[in-house]
Protein backbone atom coordinates (compact mmCIF):
# COMPACT_ATOMS: atom_id res chain seq x y z
CA UNK A 1 0.00 0.00 0.00
CA UNK A 2 1.39 3.42 -0.93
CA UNK A 3 2.53 5.92 1.62
CA UNK A 4 -0.09 8.38 0.33
CA UNK A 5 -2.81 6.22 1.88
CA UNK A 6 -1.42 7.06 5.31
CA UNK A 7 -0.78 10.75 4.66
CA UNK A 8 -2.72 13.10 6.96
CA UNK A 9 -5.72 14.86 5.45
CA UNK A 10 -5.43 18.42 4.20
CA UNK A 11 -6.53 21.31 6.38
CA UNK A 12 -9.82 21.64 4.49
CA UNK A 13 -10.68 17.93 4.65
CA UNK A 14 -9.84 17.90 8.35
CA UNK A 15 -12.16 20.84 8.93
CA UNK A 16 -14.99 19.00 7.17
CA UNK A 17 -14.45 15.87 9.27
CA UNK A 18 -14.41 17.79 12.54
CA UNK A 19 -17.45 19.81 11.44
CA UNK A 20 -19.43 16.65 10.65
CA UNK A 21 -18.57 15.10 14.02
CA UNK A 22 -19.12 18.25 16.07
CA UNK A 23 -22.42 19.28 14.49
CA UNK A 24 -24.19 16.13 15.67
CA UNK A 25 -22.78 16.50 19.15
CA UNK A 26 -23.85 20.15 19.40
CA UNK A 27 -27.37 19.57 18.12
CA UNK A 28 -28.00 16.98 20.85
CA UNK A 29 -26.21 18.77 23.67
CA UNK A 30 -27.68 20.54 26.68
CA UNK A 31 -26.50 23.85 25.26
CA UNK A 32 -28.87 23.42 22.32
CA UNK A 33 -31.77 22.97 24.73
CA UNK A 34 -30.73 26.23 26.40
CA UNK A 35 -30.49 27.89 22.99
CA UNK A 36 -33.98 26.70 22.07
CA UNK A 37 -35.35 28.21 25.30
CA UNK A 38 -33.61 31.52 24.58
CA UNK A 39 -34.86 31.58 20.99
CA UNK A 40 -38.36 30.56 22.04
CA UNK A 41 -38.84 33.55 24.34
CA UNK A 42 -39.32 36.14 21.56
CA UNK A 43 -41.53 33.68 19.66
CA UNK A 44 -43.87 33.30 22.65
CA UNK A 45 -44.04 37.07 23.06
CA UNK A 46 -44.78 37.55 19.36
CA UNK A 47 -47.51 34.92 19.36
CA UNK A 48 -49.04 36.45 22.50
CA UNK A 49 -49.10 39.88 20.86
CA UNK A 50 -50.72 38.42 17.76
CA UNK A 51 -53.41 36.67 19.77
CA UNK A 52 -54.07 39.75 21.87
CA UNK A 53 -54.35 41.95 18.80
CA UNK A 54 -56.66 39.50 17.04
CA UNK A 55 -59.01 38.92 19.95
CA UNK A 56 -59.18 42.37 21.47
CA UNK A 57 -58.18 44.59 18.52
CA UNK A 58 -55.43 45.99 20.77
CA UNK A 59 -53.57 49.13 19.71
CA UNK A 60 -50.47 50.60 21.34
CA UNK A 61 -51.61 54.23 21.39
CA UNK A 62 -51.65 56.88 24.03
CA UNK A 63 -51.67 60.57 24.78
CA UNK A 64 -50.83 62.72 27.78
CA UNK A 65 -51.55 66.29 26.91
CA UNK A 66 -49.45 65.99 23.78
CA UNK A 67 -49.37 64.27 20.44
CA UNK A 68 -50.49 60.66 20.32
CA UNK A 69 -48.15 57.91 19.23
CA UNK A 70 -48.57 54.39 17.90
CA UNK A 71 -46.34 51.39 17.42
CA UNK A 72 -46.98 49.52 14.22
CA UNK A 73 -46.07 45.92 13.54
CA UNK A 74 -42.75 46.72 11.80
CA UNK A 75 -41.76 49.00 14.69
CA UNK A 76 -42.45 46.28 17.26
CA UNK A 77 -40.48 43.79 15.18
CA UNK A 78 -37.54 46.19 14.97
CA UNK A 79 -37.50 46.71 18.72
CA UNK A 80 -37.68 42.95 19.32
CA UNK A 81 -34.78 42.33 16.95
CA UNK A 82 -32.70 44.92 18.75
CA UNK A 83 -33.64 44.13 22.35
CA UNK A 84 -34.10 40.35 22.29
CA UNK A 85 -31.71 39.20 19.59
CA UNK A 86 -28.86 41.69 19.11
CA UNK A 87 -28.57 42.79 22.72
CA UNK A 88 -29.08 39.39 24.38
CA UNK A 89 -29.44 36.23 22.29
CA UNK A 90 -26.53 36.73 19.88
CA UNK A 91 -23.85 37.64 22.46
CA UNK A 92 -25.05 35.04 24.97
CA UNK A 93 -24.90 32.23 22.43
CA UNK A 94 -21.52 33.48 21.25
CA UNK A 95 -20.24 33.24 24.81
CA UNK A 96 -21.69 29.84 25.68
CA UNK A 97 -20.71 28.16 22.43
CA UNK A 98 -17.54 30.05 21.52
CA UNK A 99 -15.80 29.59 24.86
CA UNK A 100 -16.70 25.90 24.92
CA UNK A 101 -15.15 24.92 21.58
CA UNK A 102 -11.81 24.10 23.18
CA UNK A 103 -12.51 24.63 26.89
CA UNK A 104 -15.02 21.77 27.02
CA UNK A 105 -12.47 19.38 25.52
CA UNK A 106 -9.95 20.44 28.15
CA UNK A 107 -12.47 20.12 30.98
CA UNK A 108 -13.62 16.69 29.79
CA UNK A 109 -9.97 15.63 29.29
CA UNK A 110 -10.64 14.68 25.67
CA UNK A 111 -8.35 17.30 24.13
CA UNK A 112 -5.48 14.81 24.13
CA UNK A 113 -7.40 12.37 21.92
CA UNK A 114 -8.16 15.13 19.43
CA UNK A 115 -4.58 16.37 19.28
CA UNK A 116 -3.13 12.90 18.77
CA UNK A 117 -5.06 12.46 15.54
CA UNK A 118 -3.12 13.17 12.33
CA UNK A 119 -4.92 16.43 11.59
CA UNK A 120 -3.86 20.06 12.10
CA UNK A 121 -4.81 21.46 15.48
CA UNK A 122 -6.22 24.59 13.90
CA UNK A 123 -8.59 22.48 11.80
CA UNK A 124 -10.15 21.18 14.99
CA UNK A 125 -11.06 24.69 16.12
CA UNK A 126 -12.28 25.82 12.70
CA UNK A 127 -14.42 22.69 12.24
CA UNK A 128 -16.01 23.11 15.66
CA UNK A 129 -16.51 26.83 15.00
CA UNK A 130 -18.35 26.13 11.74
CA UNK A 131 -20.50 23.57 13.55
CA UNK A 132 -21.37 26.27 16.10
CA UNK A 133 -22.45 28.62 13.29
CA UNK A 134 -24.59 25.94 11.66
CA UNK A 135 -26.17 24.86 14.94
CA UNK A 136 -27.07 28.36 16.12
CA UNK A 137 -28.31 29.44 12.69
CA UNK A 138 -30.63 26.44 12.43
CA UNK A 139 -32.34 27.42 15.68
CA UNK A 140 -32.14 31.23 15.78
CA UNK A 141 -32.93 32.26 12.21
CA UNK A 142 -36.24 30.34 12.02
CA UNK A 143 -37.16 31.97 15.31
CA UNK A 144 -36.68 35.41 13.72
CA UNK A 145 -38.86 34.43 10.75
CA UNK A 146 -41.68 33.26 13.04
CA UNK A 147 -41.49 36.53 15.00
CA UNK A 148 -41.58 38.51 11.75
CA UNK A 149 -44.74 36.86 10.39
CA UNK A 150 -46.41 37.06 13.81
CA UNK A 151 -45.68 40.70 14.58
CA UNK A 152 -45.32 42.67 11.35
CA UNK A 153 -48.96 42.24 10.21
CA UNK A 154 -50.18 43.82 13.47
CA UNK A 155 -52.03 47.12 13.13
CA UNK A 156 -51.98 47.17 9.35
CA UNK A 157 -48.32 46.38 8.77
CA UNK A 158 -47.32 44.95 5.40
CA UNK A 159 -45.39 41.68 5.37
CA UNK A 160 -44.21 42.18 1.81
CA UNK A 161 -43.01 45.75 2.34
CA UNK A 162 -40.89 44.74 5.32
CA UNK A 163 -39.30 41.69 3.68
CA UNK A 164 -36.04 43.49 2.76
CA UNK A 165 -35.63 44.44 6.42
CA UNK A 166 -36.16 40.80 7.41
CA UNK A 167 -33.37 39.72 5.05
CA UNK A 168 -31.11 42.44 6.48
CA UNK A 169 -31.95 41.34 10.03
CA UNK A 170 -31.14 37.69 9.26
CA UNK A 171 -27.80 38.71 7.78
CA UNK A 172 -27.08 40.98 10.74
CA UNK A 173 -27.82 38.23 13.26
CA UNK A 174 -25.68 35.78 11.30
CA UNK A 175 -22.83 38.30 11.26
CA UNK A 176 -23.19 38.83 14.99
CA UNK A 177 -23.08 35.10 15.69
CA UNK A 178 -19.95 34.78 13.53
CA UNK A 179 -18.09 37.67 15.17
CA UNK A 180 -19.02 36.92 18.77
CA UNK A 181 -18.31 33.23 18.24
CA UNK A 182 -14.85 33.95 16.83
CA UNK A 183 -14.01 36.40 19.60
CA UNK A 184 -15.00 33.99 22.35
CA UNK A 185 -13.36 31.07 20.58
CA UNK A 186 -10.12 32.96 21.11
CA UNK A 187 -11.01 33.56 24.76
CA UNK A 188 -11.76 29.86 25.19
CA UNK A 189 -8.48 28.89 23.56
CA UNK A 190 -6.40 31.21 25.75
CA UNK A 191 -7.98 31.29 29.21
CA UNK A 192 -8.59 28.52 31.72
CA UNK A 193 -11.98 29.89 32.89
CA UNK A 194 -13.25 31.55 29.71
CA UNK A 195 -17.01 31.50 30.40
CA UNK A 196 -16.77 33.91 33.32
CA UNK A 197 -14.57 36.27 31.32
CA UNK A 198 -17.03 36.15 28.43
CA UNK A 199 -20.04 36.91 30.60
CA UNK A 200 -18.20 39.83 32.19
CA UNK A 201 -17.46 41.17 28.72
CA UNK A 202 -21.02 41.11 27.36
CA UNK A 203 -22.82 42.07 30.58
CA UNK A 204 -20.15 44.28 32.15
CA UNK A 205 -17.67 45.74 29.68
CA UNK A 206 -19.88 46.36 26.64
CA UNK A 207 -22.90 47.93 28.38
CA UNK A 208 -20.61 50.32 30.28
CA UNK A 209 -18.13 51.49 27.67
CA UNK A 210 -20.69 52.14 24.94
CA UNK A 211 -22.18 54.94 27.06
CA UNK A 212 -18.83 56.44 28.08
CA UNK A 213 -17.57 59.22 25.81
CA UNK A 214 -14.30 58.46 24.10
CA UNK A 215 -12.71 55.74 22.03
CA UNK A 216 -13.34 52.80 24.38
CA UNK A 217 -16.62 51.92 22.67
CA UNK A 218 -14.56 51.05 19.59
CA UNK A 219 -13.27 48.03 21.51
CA UNK A 220 -16.71 46.39 21.59
CA UNK A 221 -18.61 44.28 19.09
CA UNK A 222 -21.96 45.78 20.09
CA UNK A 223 -20.95 49.29 18.99
CA UNK A 224 -20.51 48.22 15.37
CA UNK A 225 -23.24 45.59 15.33
CA UNK A 226 -25.95 47.95 16.53
CA UNK A 227 -24.76 50.56 14.07
CA UNK A 228 -26.05 48.31 11.30
CA UNK A 229 -29.58 47.92 12.68
CA UNK A 230 -31.73 48.86 9.66
CA UNK A 231 -34.84 50.00 11.54
CA UNK A 232 -36.01 53.58 12.08
CA UNK A 233 -38.56 54.30 14.79
CA UNK A 234 -41.47 56.74 14.29
CA UNK A 235 -40.56 60.40 14.73
CA UNK A 236 -43.02 61.37 17.47
CA UNK A 237 -42.26 62.62 20.95
CA UNK A 238 -43.09 59.47 22.91
CA UNK A 239 -41.19 57.21 20.52
CA UNK A 240 -38.18 59.52 20.64
CA UNK A 241 -38.10 59.17 24.42
CA UNK A 242 -38.30 55.40 24.11
CA UNK A 243 -35.43 55.34 21.66
CA UNK A 244 -33.37 57.58 23.93
CA UNK A 245 -33.93 55.21 26.85
CA UNK A 246 -32.87 52.16 24.85
CA UNK A 247 -30.04 53.66 22.83
CA UNK A 248 -26.53 53.23 24.26
CA UNK A 249 -24.54 55.29 21.80
CA UNK A 250 -24.95 58.13 19.34
CA UNK A 251 -24.11 58.82 16.64
CA UNK A 252 -23.46 55.42 15.10
CA UNK A 253 -20.55 55.08 12.65
CA UNK A 254 -21.25 54.73 8.94
CA UNK A 255 -22.49 51.35 7.78
CA UNK A 256 -19.36 50.58 5.76
CA UNK A 257 -17.18 51.33 8.78
CA UNK A 258 -19.28 48.95 10.91
CA UNK A 259 -18.99 46.17 8.32
CA UNK A 260 -15.22 46.61 7.93
CA UNK A 261 -14.73 46.70 11.69
CA UNK A 262 -16.78 43.55 12.27
CA UNK A 263 -15.00 41.69 9.47
CA UNK A 264 -11.65 42.78 10.90
CA UNK A 265 -12.62 41.59 14.40
CA UNK A 266 -13.78 38.27 12.94
CA UNK A 267 -10.60 37.67 10.95
CA UNK A 268 -8.23 38.74 13.73
CA UNK A 269 -9.91 36.85 16.57
CA UNK A 270 -10.52 33.64 14.61
CA UNK A 271 -6.95 33.70 13.33
CA UNK A 272 -5.67 34.35 16.85
CA UNK A 273 -7.78 31.45 18.16
CA UNK A 274 -6.32 29.08 15.56
CA UNK A 275 -2.82 30.25 16.38
CA UNK A 276 -3.43 29.82 20.12
CA UNK A 277 -4.67 26.25 19.68
CA UNK A 278 -1.70 25.35 17.49
CA UNK A 279 0.91 26.79 19.86
CA UNK A 280 -0.50 26.33 23.36
CA UNK A 281 0.28 23.29 25.48
CA UNK A 282 -2.88 22.29 27.32
CA UNK A 283 -2.20 20.82 30.76
CA UNK A 284 -5.04 18.65 32.04
CA UNK A 285 -5.96 19.03 35.70
CA UNK A 286 -6.18 15.87 37.78
Walk me through the structure.
The longest helix is centred in the middle third of the chain and has 31 residues, at 121-151. This protein has one domain (9-52, 70-279). It is built from eleven helices and two strands. The chain is an all-alpha fold. A two-stranded antiparallel ribbon has the order 1-2.
In short:
The chain is mainly alpha-helical and 286 residues long.
Features:
single chain; 286 residues; mainly alpha; two-stranded antiparallel ribbon; 11 helices; disordered N terminus
SSE layout:
Blueprint: H1 11-27, H2 30-56, E1 61-62, E2 69-70, H3 73-98, H4 100-107, H5 111-115, H6 121-151, H7 163-190, H8 194-209, H9 221-226, H10 237-246, H11 255-279
Helix pairs in contact: 1-6, 2-3, 2-6, 3-6, 3-7, 3-8, 6-7, 6-11, 7-8, 7-11
**Largest sheet, spatial ordering of strands:** 1-2
Instruction: Tell me the number of structural domains.
Output: 1
N-to-C SSE string, H for helix and E for strand: HHEEHHHHHHHHH
Radius of gyration: 22 Å
Which structural class do you get from the secondary structure elements? Answer: mainly alpha
Quantity of strands, as a count: 2
Unreliable spans are 1-5, 58-69, 231-243
Gap from first CA to last CA = 41 Å
| Coarse shape | globular
Amino acid sequence: MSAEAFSPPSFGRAVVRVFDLSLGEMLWSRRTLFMAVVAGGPVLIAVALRLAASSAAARFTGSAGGPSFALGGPDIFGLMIWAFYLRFTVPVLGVFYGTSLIADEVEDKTITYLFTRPIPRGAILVGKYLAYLACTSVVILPSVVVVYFSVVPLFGGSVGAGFPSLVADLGLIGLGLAVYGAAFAFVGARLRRPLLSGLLFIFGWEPVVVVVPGYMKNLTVAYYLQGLVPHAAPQDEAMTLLRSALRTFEPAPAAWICVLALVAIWVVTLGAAVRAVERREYVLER
